[in-house]
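Running this now, will post back.
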Amino acid sequence: MRLLVIEDNKNLVANLFEYFEARGHTLDAAPDGITGLHLASTQHYDALILDWMLPRLDGPEVLRRLRIEYELDVPVIMLTARDELPDKLIGFHAGADDYLTKPFALPELEVRLQALQARAHGRQRTRALEVGDLKLDLATLEVTRGGQSLHIYPACRKLLEVLMQASPAAVTRERLEYALWGDDPPDGDMLRSHIYELRRSVDGPFASKLIHTLPRIGYRLAVSTAAASDAQDVPE
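Update: finished.
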């Protein structure tokens, strides 16, 4: 499994890494809610291990935003010292799939995660995103169009995933910038440069265009060009 641990207790994070990596799992870690939200919304994980009390953004709010704003159904297990029923209800209502109170046994956490993953495989529609003849495999990160393999830079692939997940709806510039840089976007219009490179790879060799610019709004990726602008982004 590829797991994201959103937890600010460094000792606990170290224990989780030692235990799960020894069993062949891959882990990333986020020390606060904002970083965790950014990673969870821009990377593919099999499950999240989410603490309740976090700096910058607490666990239930991270979870609520993942479910509502990003519409992600990744399995989430909450780890917390809050063991009262009202707290558990808050966690489940925010979108948690399971709830484990501290202290806990690592083998129990592993079994619970395996159960969540098994259920998730049963409900997942696909491990790939498809729009028209464009396909992004979320497991291998391979991008193809019309059966032709496309070379996509990592930053552009992140943008592509966000656009494909939202398709055919529009995605604001702010959301795309957050997917790449979180709360610290670079100076200048670097997003335009990345969109230009993405468009060259996805649309350049093909007659029909999928990426459309929506002036003063953002971008959309869709087969239909209705209400889309023909404006082209050029690098700075």
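The CA atoms of residues 64 and 129 lie 23 Å apart. More later if anyone needs it.
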